[in-house]
Structure formats: structure tokens, C-alpha cells
Specification:
Radius of gyration: 27 Å
Number of strands: 5
Largest sheet: 5 strands, mixed
Strand order of the largest sheet: 2-1-3-5-4
Distance between the termini: 79 Å
Helix content: 40-55%
Mean pLDDT: 80
Shape: globular
Strand content: under 5%
């Protein structure tokens, strides 16, 4: 107990000391990477931005995280992060940057928290290096510059970690409860993903606390119960509310938060079964492929006149969309093939793995001489915590059937912590000539430099040969010189060690800056020279780097004369489907993105990151504006359509209805008026029935419908009924061009009107 009290006193004393001047530039670097130019992203991720616009309008929408102002359907995530974004928008006004700001600040906060967590046990230099490594991990600023959830999630989990460490130091049970309750809060940000750190929390508390096993079990059981209670608190309230008094729970099949948590946002991420369709609407994988193929053929036929002239362009574009390094890059959304070395594959390694070899050498050094039965030092205990965070999460990403690149931010804290703690530990072993351990430092530098050369080599056409050769040569030279000078102790050796660390962080620093240099993608954030494409391919071919989306593709209704060649969504590298964009849920995992079963959006991406090109939009002179509209293609509304709908609205609740959120989001953001996404995010939620739609039309709630594609799955009967009982509005009245052709994977888009008496 005396020892614990002395630790608390030491902590209070250290807190009274002046600010660490070395930390200031690190925080400034993090602030620059996370904040600079976020004001250029006008829409951010439009799916989530539209929700914030809706949540600003009423407490009902705010509490349920309604996607639309009419309270028809929610977004596909819990509300906590969006509550924070809505508060930010309320304070600073509704802008793209105001909904991004909380995540950017969370990214900076994570850097500071990691410094505090590592410094106390491993030393001030370990804390500094860990903070710098966190700030320069490319995926961290890439995600923090968007309104996606993960940056805030990681920050919350680090707050929980700080609470747990304090609970062990002070032996106060209240801090244990607070730590696990904070994980419950994180659950209400991104559901089961928050629980990925639980092994670390349990292992650390069991190993680090000096209390009886009976108390350990009792305390952890109580803390876990509190965590579960906090986790399901919002879900219980929502699921207990009558369905007709709240929005439909988006992306669930039973209108249930708990089903969403453990299904779509839970186990399905591991299995890869992200087909957001109910059992009554599921199709065999072969049927899905045939349907998608049929849709592709329909689109091809509608563009037959321009297909020959665009073949060469498509072929060239397909080559450009290949994954770095050429060849086949399997895996959905450029996440590689499951296996033990997945994190070293293209598309993932350049997001998170730059320092992994050094981390491995650091782990060896930190655990060298550790006895299984103990006793353990404080450094070993906290090293166990970071290892118990790192390994389960790394295993998940190595075997998971579906995730996006930006989920990898979950690996950033343990990697940065080991990089900082390991740098100091390996340097100490090297300086003390501690037998075989003294070789860990030069070995870690050499292998890490080699991996970085491997990571950069596919990008030689983008970044040139010089940085690749420079990192490789300097890494080899510094490692060899350190090995040769191992028996000497002087200032030159110290400088060599610092130089080695600078070399190993140089290219991660450049990669972390690429969302600023090349433009980012708020739908599918990723770092690298191709960051604006969001697809892990080559650098964007858009004529304007500030125009986000997928390589500058234009939305339907574009006035561009070559739209037939430019608007086609190219498949992921390695796909043999001739331009067919498929989504998870099909029978194969060979790199094709196969559509959700029954979905009408063959190009739809889960996770609020749609790439569907069937928005009733038009290209605009604003496409060259300094503002990026990266919420879905260039995410602009068709002003002529908006004018027509506004003028002819006779008191209807909804401006118009459409199949999915992609078409609706820009209009919600632009006008703040309700737009009905009939099938929720992906267009396949079983929300609407023909009888329910009839009742809504008779009540005068909606009369205009914008439809593109076949409208399958849970909406097939509804779409069929709409087409059979409506009148088609001539395209000349609402389209921005004289052409009626609507480009995109699902074919033409049409505006219908229905009035029932």
C-alpha cells in the first residue's frame, strides 16, 4: 500500500511540472495532420452528415439518430458519436468541418493520451516516441479527418485504458467501474468493435492487481455487468419503444438495435456475411451473381452506342485501378486475402504496418527474461496489456471476412506504445551490450527498413525511386554501422540511433500527409498517394485533386459528353467481372464486391460509404470549387430536380422517396427537408410494404419517387407497385440535360408521381 501511495504522490508531483517542450511539436504535428484543410470537405460522409442535419431539427431525431428529418429510418450505427457531432454543429453551425471537428480533436487527444500512458512507466522518451508514432501512423489522421466513428472510438478506449491503469495504481474499485463503463459508452459508438480490447483489460487487471482471486473475480464480474448495462441501455430503450413511434432501425432486418449490434455490426463482420437482407429475401449466391450480371448487361445495352468508343478508355482505367504492384489484389475493398501475413499485404500494410517489424523486436526485448509465474515488473505488466490489445485485434483483421481499411486504426495504439517503449528498451540493451539482446536494435531497424521498401515499391510511379532507395540504403547503413559500433560508447552512436528513428518515421510521415496533399475520401478514408480514390488503387485520375469521389466519376444526369466512359465504376483489381461492382455476400471471396442479397444497389458499399452512382444529381460548375463534396461521387444535388419537387410540393411530408440513402443524403443536407430512403442505407431494409405506402400516399405524405435499378429484395413488390400505379414525369422537366440517360450500374433513373384518392 505504501508503494501505491508513493506512486500516486509521484504522479501528482510530475503533473505539477511544466509542459514537456518536446511534446509541443508532436501535438502540433498531430493538429496539422488532423485539422488542416478539413474545411474543404463540404459534405464529409454524406450518409452521416445527413443524419446530423436531421438530428439538429428535433430531439426525437437526435435521440434515435434518424437519417432523415422525417424520422423514417435511422443510420446503421448507435448515436453517441453523432450526438457529439450534432452538438458541434449546433455550436459552430452546420458545416462539413463542424461534423469532422470532434473526430479530429479525438485524434489529437489520442496522441496525448498515449504519451501519458507510456511515459509514466517506460520513461519520457518512450512517451514522446509513442506519441509521435501514433500521430504519424497514416490511417490515424486519414480517419480523424472524416466524420466516421473510429477515431472517436479509439480515443474513448484510450480514456478507458487510462482509467484502468489508474485503478491498478490506486487500488480503487471505482476506477475499475469507470473503465468498463467507458467501454460500454464505446459500444454505443460502434457496437462490438469496442469489445475488441476486453482481453487486454481482463489480462491486465488480473496480472497487475495485488488482491485475492476472490476479489478479482468479484470486481471484474461487477464491472462487466456495468459495462453490459451501459452497452445495451440505448438499445433497450429503442427496442422497447413501439415501432410506430420511432424510426426504423436502419440495416437491421427485424427493426432491432440488438440484432443490428450482434448481426450486421457484429458477427457478420467476421464471417463476411454483410448482405443486409432478411431470410425471406435471401437469394442463392449464384442467383445474386446472375442478377448482378443481368443488371450489368442492361446498363451495357443502354450504352451500346458509346460502348465501342469507351472500351479502350475502360481498359486503361481498369489498369489504373489495379492495386499497387500490379497483379491480382484479392479481398473486398482492397483488404487482401485472409491469412497470417494479411497485415503485410498491399492495401493494409501502408495504412498501419510501417513499424510492425520494429514492434516485434521490441516485444522480444520487453519480455526477455520474463518468468511465466512472475513476479512481473510494472513494465512487463503494461507490456502484457498492449500485447493483449495488439494480438486479438491483429488476428481479427487477419481472418475477418469483411472490414474497411480505416478499421485498422484499432491497431494504432498498441503499435505506437510498443514502438515508443521498445525504442527505449532496445536502445538501453544496445548501450549496455546486453548479449544477444544488444542485436535487437540494429535487427529491428534493418527489418523495418526492408518492410518499408516493400510497402513503397508499388508506388514508384507516384513517389519516385529516390525515397524508396533512400529509406532502404539509410536503413541498411545505419543498422550495419550500429552493429559495428556496438562496442563503442560516444555521442556519435547516440546520433546514429536518433537518425535511425527519423528514417523509420520519414515515410509514415509522408503517408500521413497524403490526405492533405492529394485529397482524402470521407466515405472510405485511407492514406497514400491514392488517398482521394478511397479504393486503395493508384493516384486519382480526376482532373481536379479537390474533387473527391471515385477518380472523379460524375453522377447521373451529367452534362459531360463522355459520361458513358467516365461514369462506369471499375471493379477492384483482380476482379474478372468486367466492371461489375459486387458486394460481400456472394459465394466467392476472390476480390469481387458482391451486392447485398436482394439489394437494388449493385454498387452500394456498407458502413455509410456508398459508391452508388444512381443519385438524381447533376454535374455542376462547382465541381472545380475549392470545396470537396465527398459524400457520394461529388454529392451535389440536381438543382432543376430540386426546383421541380419544391414547386410541385402540395404539403407532402417528404420531398420525394427513393430506394436508398445515397440518393437521399445530398438533398437532406442541402434542404433540411425529409427525403425517404425507402429501403434504408443499402436499399434492401424491409421497412416498407405496399399497403403502408398506399396509406402514406393517401395521407398526403409522399407523391414523388425517384427510382433507379430494379428495386429487389425487401422493396421488390413496392417498386413494382410504384411503377404500375404512377405516371412518369418527363425528363425535360427535371433533368439537368436534354439526355434521359442515367449512367450507373443499375441503369436509368426515372421520376414518378402517384396521387391516390
Amino acid at each position: 500500500m505504501k508503494h501505491m501511495n508513493s506512486e500516486v504522490k509521484e504522479e501528482r508531483t510530475s503533473n505539477k511540472k511544466r509542459i514537456d517542450l518536446f511534446l509541443v511539436p508532436i501535438v502540433l504535428i498531430a493538429a496539422f495532420l488532423n485539422l488542416f484543410k478539413i474545411w474543404t470537405d463540404e459534405y464529409a460522409n454524406a450518409y452521416y452528415t445527413a443524419a446530423v442535419k436531421s438530428m439538429l431539427q428535433s430531439f426525437h431525431n437526435f435521440f434515435y439518430a434518424s437519417f432523415d428529418p422525417g424520422g423514417y429510418v435511422t443510420i446503421d450505427k448507435p448515436p453517441v458519436v453523432f450526438w457529439i457531432q450534432t452538438i458541434s454543429a449546433k455550436i459552430f453551425g452546420f458545416h462539413g468541418w463542424s461534423v469532422i471537428l470532434p473526430q479530429a480533436l479525438a485524434g489529437i487527444g489520442s496522441v496525448l493520451l498515449l504519451y501519458v500512458l507510456v511515459k509514466r512507466t517506460f520513461g519520457v522518451w518512450a512517451g514522446r516516441f509513442a506519441a509521435l508514432a501514433m500521430a504519424l501512423t497514416p490511417i490515424v489522421p486519414a480517419v480523424s479527418r472524416t466524420n466516421n466513428i473510429d477515431s472517436m472510438l479509439v480515443f474513448t478506449l484510450l480514456v478507458a485504458t487510462w482509467m484502468l491503469f489508474r485503478a491498478v495504481r490506486t487500488a480503487k474499485f471505482g476506477w475499475v467501474l469507470a473503465a468498463f463503463a467507458m467501454i460500454g459508452v464505446a459500444f454505443n459508438m460502434k457496437m462490438l468493435q469496442a469489445y475488441m480490447v476486453l482481453p487486454a483489460f481482463y489480462v491486465f487487471y488480473v496480472v497487475a492487481t495485488k488482491i485475492t482471486w476472490k476479489k478479482k473475480i468479484a470486481f471484474l464480474t461487477t464491472a462487466t455487468a456495468l459495462m453490459l448495462a451501459v452497452s445495451v441501455s440505448w438499445a433497450v430503450v429503442v427496442d422497447s419503444t413501439s415501432a410506430d413511434k420511432r424510426p426504423y432501425m436502419g440495416s437491421s432486418q427485424t427493426n432491432s438495435v440488438l440484432e443490428l449490434a450482434f448481426g450486421y455490426n457484429g458477427i457478420n463482420r467476421l464471417t463476411g456475411n454483410t448482405s443486409v437482407t432478411g431470410s425471406s429475401h435471401k437469394q442463392p449466391a449464384q442467383a445474386q451473381q446472375q442478377t448482378a450480371s443481368s443488371e450489368t448487361k442492361q446498363t451495357s445495352n443502354s450504352n451500346a452506342e458509346s460502348s465501342q468508343s469507351s472500351n479502350q478508355s475502360k481498359s486503361s482505367s481498369s489498369k489504373k485501378m489495379q492495386a499497387p504492384g500490379g497483379g491480382n489484389q484479392n479481398g473486398m475493398f482492397n483488404t487482401g486475402n485472409p491469412g497470417p501475413f494479411r497485415l503485410f499485404q498491399k492495401g493494409l500494410s501502408d495504412q498501419i504496418s510501417w513499424l510492425l517489424p520494429f514492434v516485434i523486436f521490441s516485444i522480444v526485448g520487453l519480455f526477455a527474461g520474463m518468468k511465466f509465474k512472475g513476479p512481473y515488473t510494472t513494465k512487463q505488466k503494461e507490456s502484457l496489456f498492449w500485447l493483449a490489445w495488439l494480438l486479438p485485434v491483429a488476428v481479427f483483421f487477419s481472418i475477418a471476412g469483411f472490414f474497411h481499411q480505416y478499421y485498422l486504426i484499432m491497431l494504432a495504439p498498441p503499435i505506437a506504445a510498443f514502438a515508443g517503449a521498445g525504442a527505449v528498451a532496445l536502445w538501453s540493451m544496445y548501450k549496455q551490450r546486453n548479449g544477444w539482446k544488444s542485436w535487437l536494435l540494429p535487427g529491428g531497424i534493418l527489418t523495418t527498413a526492408a518492410l518499408q521498401v516493400y510497402i513503397m515499391s508499388p508506388y514508384v510511379s507516384s513517389i519516385g525511386v529516390a525515397p524508396i532507395a533512400g529509406v532502404g540504403a539509410l536503413g541498411v547503413i545505419l543498422a550495419l554501422v550500429l552493429a559495428v559500433r556496438k562496442e563503442r560508447k560516444n555521442s556519435v552512436t547516440n546520433y546514429l540511433g536518433v537518425a535511425a528513428m527519423v528514417v523509420l518515421l520519414a515515410m509514415p510521415a509522408y503517408w500521413a500527409m497524403t490526405p492533405i496533399i492529394y485529397g482524402g475520401n470521407s466515405m472510405l478514408p485511407a492514406a497514400g498517394p491514392d488517398s482521394s480514390s478511397g479504393m486503395g488503387g493508384p493516384p486519382s485520375t480526376a482532373t481536379n485533386s479537390k474533387q473527391s469521389g471515385f477518380n472523379g466519376m460524375q453522377p447521373p444526369g451529367s452534362s459531360s459528353s463522355n459520361s458513358s466512359s467516365n461514369n462506369q465504376m471499375q471493379p477492384p483489381t483482380g476482379s474478372s467481372n468486367g466492371g461489375q461492382m459486387q458486394m460481400p455476400g456472394g459465394s466467392s471471396n476472390n476480390g469481387q464486391m458482391q451486392p447485398p442479397s436482394g439489394s437494388s444497389n449493385s454498387g452500394q458499399m456498407p458502413e455509410g460509404s456508398s459508391n452508388n452512382s444512381q443519385m438524381p444529381n447533376s454535374s455542376s460548375s462547382k465541381s472545380s470549387s475549392s470545396k470537396r463534396k465527398s459524400g457520394g461521387m461529388n454529392a451535389e444535388v440536381n438543382q432543376k430536380l430540386l426546383n421541380y419537387l419544391t414547386k410541385n410540393n402540395t404539403g407532402e411530408k417528404y420531398l420525394f422517396a427513393t430506394t436508398d440513402s445515397t440518393s437521399a443524403a445530398p438533398y437532406i443536407i442541402k434542404t433540411g427537408k425529409p427525403v425517404m430512403a425507402m429501403g434504408g442505407f443499402s436499399g434492401s431494409d424491409p421497412i416498407l410494404t405496399v399497403s403502408k405506402l398506399k396509406a402514406m400516399i393517401k395521407k398526403g405524405e409522399v407523391k414523388y419517387f425517384y427510382l433507379s435499378g430494379m428495386g429487389k429484395g425487401g422493396q421488390s413488390d413496392v417498386i413494382t407497385w410504384i411503377k404500375e400505379n404512377s405516371k412518369e414525369i418527363p425528363s425535360s422537366k427535371w433533368q439537368s440535360t436534354s439526355s434521359s440517360a442515367q449512367q450507373g450500374p443499375s441503369g436509368n433513373g426515372t421520376l414518378y408521381e402517384i396521387t391516390l384518392k
